[in-house]
Design a protein that fits this description.
Largest sheet: 4 strands, mixed
CATH superfamily of one domain: Winged helix-like DNA-binding domain superfamily/Winged helix DNA-binding domain
Shape: globular
Strand order of the largest sheet: 3-1-2-4
Radius of gyration: 22 Å
CATH topology of one domain: Arc Repressor Mutant, subunit A
Distance between the termini: 48 Å
Helix content: 40-55%
Strand content: 5-15%
Order of helices and strands: HEEEHEHHHHHHEEEHEHHEHHEH
CATH class of one domain: Mainly Alpha
Structural class: alpha/beta
Number of strands: 10
Length: about 375
């Protein structure tokens, strides 16, 4: 903890007053409803005797509470910081702006404080996020068939070499190497936890990764070789399907992914990925449990390698696998993102529980 919470009576007064000064620093758990809320939640206020206060979203979830559907604390963890909310709004208003630390200072913020806050919540600095957003502008311009120079200008890169270098670091190839046609087409998908690249053929999804994954350029080059260089920018049906499924996932509507997949790997890796897809949202497994599931109890390390080799994030939910002691372990998308995904998925477990209980009661009757 970076601070000490006030006493519960103070926090309860803050809840009654919807005091934004405590927003994001503490959450209220309501025993009678089983939900937890931000202190600024507009819902009817519970009695003091039914309230307990916890410092983090994770602590509320671990205590068995589910997130409120009115104040949506899972969505608001980062935005509860007014500095982050202000800068993200500014970035949305000017996605093509070449942001610098001087801009942050002129807005009245301390650059070092902002750097730490964004790193804590998003695993990247605000300036890195802004550069990524500009690169998205260039990527999407190229996807329309525009020339590289036009994409460079839309991405607000001063030099052609700078744009080519940034694009190559992301995609593993120069922007001019990718047209609008190909057996495989790459598309950009924005999500609340960061932007992703999806690559599909006409019938299957081949890749879905966060753009800051270090292995992404190598994975894309491997797909280029597999398709004999027939990789372009654009969208196929499976990409649009997974885009809609991701939208449902992040809005809490559904954790079901039905997009057809093309999984390239050994028979062992395929068995691991199948076991991952069988883990329900809101549940977790250890590497040893996966090894037991696939009938190879001594292959825990091999399971971990196959888990790390997965290149269809979220759909093949490698984030649901933890260490034997329950600790977060390596995740290509970053441990901060893995934690957020696990927290998000608690809501799906919470919504399943009443239905399961009702079914069990009916069966016993």
């Amino acid at each position: 903890m970076m601070f000490d919470l006030p006493d519960d009576d103070t926090l309860y007064r803050a809840l009654l007053d919807r005091d934004a000064g405590f927003d994001g620093q503490a959450f209220v758990c309501v025993a009678t409803t089983g939900i937890f809320c931000r202190l600024t939640c507009p819902a009817r206020k519970p009695l003091r005797a039914n309230c307990t206060f916890r410092p983090t979203i994770g602590a509320c979830i671990e205590a068995g509470f589910r997130p409120c559907k009115r104040c949506k604390p899972l969505d608001s963890a980062a935005l509860a910081d007014p500095q982050i909310a202000t800068l993200l709004a500014a970035l949305d208003a000017q996605p093509d702006k070449r942001w610098a630390e001087g801009d942050i200072t002129r807005m009245g913020f301390d650059p070092s404080t902002i750097r730490r806050a964004f790193k804590r919540h998003y695993g990247m600095t605000f300036l890195e996020m802004a550069r990524q957003r500009r690169l998205r502008e260039g990527f999407e311009t190229l996807s329309t068939g525009a020339k590289v120079i036009t994409a460079q200008h839309d991405a607000s890169f001063d030099s052609a070499s700078g744009f080519r270098a940034a694009f190559s670091r992301l995609m593993g190839c120069a922007p001019g190497d990718l047209g609008q046609k190909g057996l495989l087409l790459a598309s950009w998908i924005a999500t609340p936890l960061g932007d992703m690249i999806a690559i599909s053929s006409a019938h299957h999804l081949h890749l879905l990764e966060f753009v800051d994954r270090k292995a992404l350029p190598a994975e894309i080059r491997a797909l280029q070789r597999l398709s004999k260089g027939s990789l372009g920018l654009g969208t196929h049906g499976p990409t649009e399907q997974v885009r809609a499924e991701l939208q449902a996932y992040f809005t809490g509507t559904s954790a079901q992914f039905q997009t057809p997949l093309s999984l390239q790997g050994s028979a062992f890796a395929q068995s691991v990925w199948a076991a991952l897809r069988a883990i329900p949202a809101g549940e977790r497994r250890s590497y040893s449990q996966i090894a037991q599931t696939i009938g190879a109890p001594q292959a825990t390390r091999a399971v971990a390698r196959a888990n790390g080799a997965n290149q269809i994030a979220l759909v093949v939910p490698c984030h649901r696998v933890l260490g034997a002691d329950g600790a977060l372990t390596g995740y290509g998308g970053g441990l901060w993102r893995k934690q957020r995904l696990l927290e998000i998925e608690q809501q799906f477990r919470a919504t399943k529980a009443p239905s399961a209980a009702k079914a069990q009661s009916a069966a016993s009757a």
